[in-house]
Amino acid sequence: MRNVYLDTNVPSFLTTTRQDPASVFRRELTQKFWRGHGAKYRLFVSELVLAELTADAWPGRDEALAAVDALLRLPVTPEVRRATEAYIRARVMPDDARGDAAHYACASVHGMEIVLTWNIRHLANPGKTERLAALNRRLGLSTPVVYTPEALLEEDFDDG
Q1: Nearest C-alpha neighbor of 124 from the set 139, 144, 99
Q2: Exposed end of the chain (fewer CB within 10 Å): N or C?
Q3: CATH number of the domain residue 97 falls in
Q4: HEC readout, 43-86
Q5: Which domain holds residue 15?
Q6: CA-to-CA distance for 37 and 149, rounded, in angstroms?
Q7: Helix (H, G, I), strand (E, B) or coil at 3
Q8: What is the pLDDT of residues 38-61, one digit of tens each?
């Protein structure tokens, strides 16, 4: 069973009430992952995810919090903060994406195999993969593979 770190947008899209086509698509795929495939993985969130989910009131927030309530929690340690700063200093992640850098750092420090996210710009971005892997090697950290729920569902389907 592989360890999967959930970025905040995964539980957010699980319960979103938005009706634009992209949001509906992401909600449906996230719900499909949660129902049928989530049990194939050991799912984790961090203190960062909980803080982001509770930061504001939004439709679906209570359901998203309930969905992650039983998941394993990763702490934000000094090592996570150091890795976050290293990503930003190396310009692998911009300073305005500090939260994205912190999510990836948390997953890397805690040895997650997968980061699951809908964030294409800063996390599920093929252009960043090699740079993150090289930096993590220098930092002595593992390098989780980043998937969208859609891509992980496709891999699950291909694996049978």
Answers
A1: 144
A2: C
A3: 3.40.50.1010
A4: EEEEHHHHHHHHCCCCCCHHHHHHHHCCCEEECCCHHHHHHHHH
A5: 2-159
A6: 10
A7: strand
A8: 678 999 999 999 999 999 888 999
Which structure tokens are listed for 29? 């795929």
pLDDT of 20 over the 90 cut: yes
Residues 31, 37: Cα–Cα separation, whole Å: 10
Q: What is the SS3 assignment for 24?
A: helix
The string of DSSP codes covering 131-152 is HHHHHHHHHT---PEEE-HHHH
With 0-12 / 13-18 / 19 or more C-beta atoms within 10 angstroms meaning exposed / middle / buried, residue 150 is middle
CA–CA distances in Å: residue 141 to residues 9, 19, 133: 24, 39, 9
What is the number of domains present in the chain? 1
Q: Summarize pLDDT for 69-117 with one digit per residue, the tens.
A: 989 999 999 999 999 999 999 988 877 767 889 999 999 999 999 999 9
4 pairs with which residues across the strands? 43, 114
What is the value of pTM for the model shown? 0.91
